[in-house]
Amino acid sequence: MESKNxxxxxxxxxxxxxxxxxxxxxxxxxxxVLILLLAWAGVDFKNxxxxxxxxxxxxxxxxxxxxxxxxxxxxxxxxxxHVWFNTLSNRGVWAWSLGILLTGFYVLLYWFPQxxxxxxxxxxxxxxxxxxxxxxxxxxxxxxxxxxxxxxTIYSLLILSLGIKFIYKYRHNRYQIIxxxxxxxxxxxxxxxxxxxxxxxNADKPYFVKDLKQIWPLNYYITESWYLNAMQVEQNVxxxxxxxxxxAVILFLVITPVLTYYVGKRWYCSWVCGCGxxxxxxxxxxxxxxxxxxxxxxxxRWLIHGIMVFVLIMTIAVFYTYFSGKEFDIKLFxxxxxxxxxxxxxxxxxxxxxxxxxxxxxSSHNKFILVGTVILGLIFGAILYAYLTGSSDVFLVKSKxxxxxxxxxxxxxxxxxxxxxxxxxxxxxxxxxFGCPMAGYMGLFQRFKSRFKITTNx
Amino acid sequence: MEEHIVIIGNxxxxxxxxxxxxxxxxxxxxxxxxxxxxxYSRTALMYIYMGHMKFEHTxxxxxxxxxxxxxxxxxxxxxxxxxxxxxxxxxxQSTMAYDKLILALxxxxxxxxxxxxxxxxxxxxxxxxxxxxxEQYSVDCNRAVxxxxxxxxxxxxxxxxxxxxxxxxxxxxxxxxxxxxxxxESEMINKxxxxxxxxxxxxxxxxxxxxxxxxxxxxxxxxxTGEELPCNIVGLTAGVSPNIAFLKDxxxxxxxxxxxxxxxxxxxxxxYAIGDCAEQRDAIGQRRPIEAVWYTGRMMGETVAQTICxxxxxxxxxxxxxxxxxxxxEYQTYGWVFSDKIKPDYQETFHWMAPCSKKCITxxxxxxxxxxxxxxxxxxxxxxxxxxxxxxEKRDVFYVMEHLKDVNFDPEFYEQYEDMIINYxxxxxxxxxxxxxxxxxxxxxxxx
Lengths: 458, 448
Known about the structure:
The structure holds 2 protein chains of 2 kinds. Helix content of chain A is 65%, strand content 1%. Chain A is built from 19 helices and 2 strands. In chain A, α3 (48-72) packs parallel to α7, α4 (93-111) packs antiparallel against α16 and α13 packs antiparallel against α16. The longest helix of chain A is centred in the C-terminal third of the chain and has 31 residues, at 294-324. Chain B is 25% helix and 25% strand. Chain B has 12 helices and 25 strands. The N and C termini of chain B lie far apart (52 Å).
C-alpha cells in the first residue's frame, strides 16, 4: 500500500517556494560543502587558510540563516509535515545518494585515509581535504592535520550548525532547547577543543584520548596498550594521566549508575554523548525511519547485549594479558598480574550475583536474563581458571585477536559506517539502539533500577 | 465446537472486543469490515495526508498478529442481519452464521440536506476512503471550504494547510466550538486559527454548493452574506452520527444509535453494540447517550468482552475526560466544564490565561459548595489520574488550587504557572491560598 504521492509537489499546485533569503542562505551552505568536496576530490586551493575559513563559515552561517528563516515563518509547534513525502527523508534518491556518500567517506576514513590525503603528499605532507584542515590544526596544536582531525572538526561543525537548526525547529519545547545547547557544548568543548588544545600543550608527551565524557564500554581505546602506557606516571605524563585513569573508572562504576538511576539513560545518550549528539542534530530529519516492527526489537535485544558481553570479554582478555606482563604504577598502588584478576573477579562476581538475584526474583523466569547469568558465570570461571593456572590469556584466545575483530566489526563498521553512513536509510539511532554497549550497560540499570524504565500498556 | 463471535467493524471498539475475548477464551472470532484489510488508528488519518506517517504506521498491530491470535478477518460490508436465523448477509451475497454478534459500526459524517451535498469534491473526513478521495481532489485544488467548526473541521483545515491549499472555514457559531468551550478559550483558538492563515468565517452557514459542467464542486454560497466562494473541495465536518442505515429493516431497536442497556446488550440477548454506534437507553452521569470518542469505544470493547466470556459486566466509563489538539495547541479536559452558552446556574468558572496568550486553564466549581467540577487546560499538560482521583474524592476548588503543582505534567524545564494561577485566583475570589510544593509521594503513591 505505498502512497502514490512520494513527492508532494505532484499533488499540490501550491508548492511552498523558498524566499530570496532562504535561497541565498541555502546556496551559501551548499557552496561551503562544495569546497570540502572539491578538496576531497583533490583540488588544491593554494591558500588553505582562506578556503577552510570560507567553507566552515559558509556552512555555519548558511544553515543558521536558512533554519532561522524557515522555522520562524511558522508558529512554534511540531514540524513533521511532508517527512514521508520528501525524497531525502523518505529513502528516495537523495537519501540513497547521501547514504552512499557518507558510507564512502567512513570507509576511507577508517581504512584508507590516504585517499583523503592523509600523509599522501611528498615527505608525508597532507594533500586533499586533510591538507585543507592543516591551518586550523596548526592553530590549535601546532602540527599538521590528520584525517581524524578533519573528521572531528566536521563532526563538531555539524552538531553545532544543525543543532541550531534543531533549536529553531523545536523552540516550543524548553527541554529540547536546553538539552540541545548542552549536547552542542559537550561536543564542542569536551570532545573537541579541550582534547585538541591539551594535545597541543603536551606535544612532546605520548598521546591518549582526553575527552572527559568518553566512557568504557563505548570508548574501548582504553584497551589499547599505547593508551594505557601513555597514562602512566613512568612516561612522565604527570598528574593528568592519573586523573584521566581514575576519572574513567569513577565514570563507569559510580557516575553512570547513579545518574541513570535518577534521570534515566538519556542523561548520556541525548545530553552528553557525541554519537547521540550527531543523531539528534544532523540525524533529526531521519528519526522517523527507525523500524518499529516486533522483529526489530527481537534483533535489538540480542545484538546490543551480545556486543556488550563481547566488549566485556575483550576488555578483560586484553587487560589480563597487559597486566600480567607489566606493572602499572598509579602512585597509590600498582595493578599487576595479581591485583587485576582479583578486581575483575570482584566486578564480574557482583554482576553475576545481581543477575542471578534478578532472575530468581522475577516470577516470569526470563530466559534472556538466564542466558546473561550463565555467561557471566562462565566469564568468572575463565578468569579464575587463568589466574590459578598462571596463563596470560583468559578465554583461550589471543586477546589481540579479539580486540582486532571488535575494533573492525563494532568500532568501525557498525558504529561509523553503518551507524552514521546509513542514517538516511535506517534512521538516526541505529548504532545507539542496536549496537552501543554503553546503552546496553545503562539499559540494565534503567530496566531494573530506575524511575525511567520504559514499559508498554498494551 | 466453540461459540462463534462475529464482530462487525474493525475500529477501536471492535478490535478491543476481539483482543479481550481472545485473551479470556478460545471462542472462534471473526471481524468483518469493508473499510480496510486491517485495523488502523482512525485519529491518525490526518497525519498520513500531512506526511507525518504512512498508512502502515497507523496500524497498531502488525499484519501477522491476527492469524497468530486466531482472529479471522473478512473484508466485506454486511447488508442484512437475520436475527431469527442468526445469520448475516454480506455484499457479495454470501452469508455468515453467528452465535453472538457485536455491532461496532462507527459513525458517518452528518449531512443536513444542503443543496449540492453529494457533488464530486464534497466529502467528510472519517473513513480511509475519505482520505483517498481527499488525496485525489487535492491534485488541482485552488481553495477548499470547510463547513462545520468542530474537532474534525479544524483537523481537516490543518491537513489542507499542510499542503499549502487555501482554506475557508465556515463556522455556524459566533466563535469556534463555543458550544463546548468557554468563551475565553474559544476566543484564543479563533486567533490561533487565523495565525495559521486559515480564513475563518464565524456566524456563517452554508447555503448551497454549486457544480461546474462536470458535476464537480465549483463554489459555495454563504447564507448570511450571499457571497459566492470559488472552491474545488468542500469538507462537511458538522459532526458525525451512528452508521446504522442498514439496520433499519432489522428487528434491532434503534434510536439515533443502537439502543443498549448498561451491559451494552441490545433488545436481542445475543447481540451487543459498542463504540460510536451505541446509544445508552439510560444516561450515565452527565455523559451524552452517544459518545463518539476513541477511549469510550475501547472501554466498551473491554466491557463487552468480559460479558461474552461469562463475566457479565456493566459499562462504567468513570469521570468524563478527553483531549485534542487545535493546530499547535494541546487541549485536555477532566470532569465537566460547560461553555458559557449552556452552563448550569450552579457552575462558577475561573479562567486564567498565560501572558503568551497560548496557554490557559478554566476551572469549573460549584457556586455554593465550592466543589470542584472540572477543568479545561490548553498548552499545559496535566495528570489524568490525579484529577480523576480528586473528582472521586469530591475535593473543593481550594484544594485543587493549592495542589496544582502535583498535577503538572509538562516536560522538565518548562515554565511553571501555578503561582501565577493561584495569585490570580486569590485576587478574583479574595482568598489567600498558597500553592503546595510538588510532592512525588502524593503523585506516585496517590496518597494524601
